[in-house]
């Protein structure tokens, strides 16, 4: 499972973090992101239609690797798995989620910030974590300071990241990819401007890694 997660996350510099308000947007949005070069996408369970959106993308956009985000409970985990999510992301980690993940074949990306949180997940066998909320928790300076003491742990920082500062994160040795919603702005979704989303994805996909 770790290998599969590493393969997904190392396949592109940016994982789009999506909040889908209109179910009709799910498939065209996923297609635009894939055309722009971002195949792996995270649909967050922050809207009522999120599980349906995951299901539709899984069924209708086979080129995409659809994941589920904002997973807070075992119920969320089970729903995401049943909808066809190929990876599952949480802003944190609870015993209940770690138990669900250990019973599941779907790779899990739990969130952590502090050294103790990271060490607890390391003890559970995790090598790749979401670092959330990235900018608010100390950003690149904080992450850089974890690289030596917590060698071997890699992170997908998320929150407050955009085309402007993504490269700074990607230059760090312990960053596998970054996550962000900037490639799918509300305004472009509202107007169905899929060409604009595709272009934002293309720029994100071309970001260099350190
Ligand atoms: C997440 O859930 O990973 C973040 O809320 C996305 O953060 P952003 O909107 O600042 O990119």
TrEMBL record:
Pathways involved: Carbohydrate acid metabolism; 2-dehydro-3-deoxy-D-gluconate degradation; D-glyceraldehyde 3-phosphate and pyruvate from 2-dehydro-3-deoxy-D-gluconate: step 2/2
Catalytic activities: 2-dehydro-3-deoxy-6-phospho-D-gluconate = D-glyceraldehyde 3-phosphate + pyruvate
Signal peptide positions on this chain: none
Any one GO MF annotation of this record: 2-dehydro-3-deoxy-phosphogluconate aldolase activity
Pfam families reported in the protein's UniProt record: Aldolase (PF01081)
Alphabetic keyword roster: Carbohydrate metabolism, Lyase, Schiff base
Entry superkingdom: Bacteria
Annotated EC: 4.1.2.14
InterPro entries, sorted: Aldlse_KDPG_KHG, Aldolase_TIM, KDPG/KHG_AS_1, KDPG/KHG_AS_2
PROSITE patterns referenced in this protein's UniProt entry, alphabetically: ALDOLASE_KDPG_KHG_1, ALDOLASE_KDPG_KHG_2
Enzyme type, top EC level: lyase
Record family assignment: Belongs to the KHG/KDPG aldolase family.
Xref: NCBIfam families: eda, PRK05718.1, PRK06015.1
Subunit description: Homotrimer.
UniProt-listed PANTHER family: 2-DEHYDRO-3-DEOXY-6-PHOSPHOGALACTONATE ALDOLASE-RELATED, 2-KETO-3-DEOXY-6-PHOSPHOGLUCONATE ALDOLASE
The protein's name: 2-dehydro-3-deoxy-phosphogluconate aldolase
Organism per entry: Chelativorans petroleitrophicus
């Amino acid at each position: 499972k770790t290998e599969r997660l590493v393969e997904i996350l190392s396949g592109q510099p940016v994982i789009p973090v999506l909040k889908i308000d209109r179910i009709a947007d799910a498939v065209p949005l996923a297609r635009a992101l894939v055309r722009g070069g971002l195949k792996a996408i995270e649909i967050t369970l922050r809207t009522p239609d999120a599980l349906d959106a995951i299901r539709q993308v899984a069924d209708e956009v086979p080129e995409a690797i659809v994941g589920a985000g904002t997973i807070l409970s075992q119920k969320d985990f089970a729903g995401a798995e049943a909808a066809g999510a190929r990876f599952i992301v949480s802003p944190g980690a609870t015993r209940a989620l770690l138990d669900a993940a250990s019973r599941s074949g779907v790779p899990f990306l739990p969130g952590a910030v502090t050294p103790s949180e990271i060490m607890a997940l390391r003890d559970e066998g995790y090598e790749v974590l979401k670092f959330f909320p990235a900018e608010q928790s100390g950003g690149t300076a904080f992450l850089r300071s974890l690289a030596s003491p917590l060698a071997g742990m890699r992170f997908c920082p998320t929150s407050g990241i955009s085309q402007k500062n993504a490269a700074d994160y990607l230059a760090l040795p312990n960053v596998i990819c970054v996550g962000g919603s900037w490639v799918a702005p509300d305004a472009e979704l509202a107007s169905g401007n899929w060409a604009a989303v595709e272009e934002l994805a293309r720029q994100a996909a071309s970001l260099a890694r350190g």
